[in-house]
Amino acid sequence: MKDYIEERAIEIAKYIIKEQATVRQTASVFGVSKSTVHKDVTERLPKINPLIAGKVKKVLDKNKAERHIRGGKATKMKYQALNRQ
């Protein structure tokens, strides 16, 4: 069972790095919860592969810094769609 979790953590990390994906997007693709993705990349991955963990951290930090911008765009689109009806 432990091997599966380690493999999943590495696959999740590779996906996040390649796609510059958010935790939510990654969870959707892998069919696991956001909590699982977060735990895999913040707790398990540094013990398995610190180099990849550092790269994932950079992507997640960038996504976190841009989060308020994406939220604002989503809200804008929501209200534009409502006004068209």
Automatic annotation (TrEMBL):
GO molecular function: DNA binding; DNA-binding transcription factor activity
Signal peptide: none
InterPro entries, per database record: Spore_III_D, Tscrpt_reg_HTH_DeoR_CS
PROSITE patterns linked to this entry: HTH_DEOR_1 (PS00894)
Keyword DNA-binding among UniProt keywords: yes
Pfam families per the UniProt record, alphabetical: SpoIIID
Transmembrane segments: none
Keyword hit for Transmembrane: no
Keywords: DNA-binding, Transcription, Transcription regulation
Superkingdom assignment: Bacteria
Protein name in the entry: Putative DeoR family transcriptional regulator, stage III sporulation protein D
Native organism: Caloranaerobacter azorensis DSM 13643
